[in-house]
Amino acid sequence: MQQAIVGYHRDEEQHWVAELACGHCQHVRHNPPWVMRPWVVASAGRRKMLGHLLECRKCDEHAPRDWDHA
Known about the structure:
29% strand; CATH 2.40.50; single chain; 70 residues
């Protein structure tokens, strides 16, 4: 199920994590050549991707929320 990015935070290892509208979180690493997400390294790129849809496997699995955005 696709969910919109509504915010970001860093994890304990300083990797960027997208906060999704559904209440789940998903890492959004730029780790070439496996994962190409150059937009994540700059604040302007992250802002531009707010509202972008990511596939949320946790929603597909009916997992509990990671955070409460309300």
